[in-house]
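quick one, 199 residues, struct below
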Amino acid sequence: MTSGRTGILGGSFDPIHYGHLAIAEEVRVLLRLNRVLIIPAREQPLKPGGSVASPAHRLAMARLACADNPFFEVSRIEIDRPDPSYTSVTLQLLHEQGLNDLYLILGIDSVADLPRWREVRRILELAHIVGVARPGAAVDLSHLSQVLPQLPARLIEIDGPRLDISSTDLRQRVAQGRPIRYQTPDAVVAYIEANGLYR
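---
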């Protein structure tokens, strides 16, 4: 894996959709990143209930969604690990692979939740935090500097594209027989249909 300014966008991606992709591209362009790693989580520690689709299905959908963007790379780094997908571990592994200029892309609501994350101080040592505004997420971050004094120097706030699309809604729409086209790439729609996901 070549070095350079690298964005990290992790998540369940259950399924991946245009909201994820638009944020990744916005951050890539604004911060002049060499690439963005899309990292599907095997299991998100702070998301109870887990994912609906299997890790293999979510990885496949992410690959299909990113296939036409040469700056996006889908990584198996968390899918292949048996343990929960702790960001601190992932960033450390990427650092050991020579990626030393990392930009962790989070919704601004997730930035507010950082004090609950495992080894958050190590995360801040290993990566810049890119907080992206999302629809319906009016978040006050002023209290965070008291809990995480190093955060202000590592935080980049971006007013990202506000596409009000959620994976939860897409799963519900599929279950109800409603269309999801134009909310996620056609290849992902076809994959969901072909594999009977979310029914």
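The chain has one domain: 6-165.
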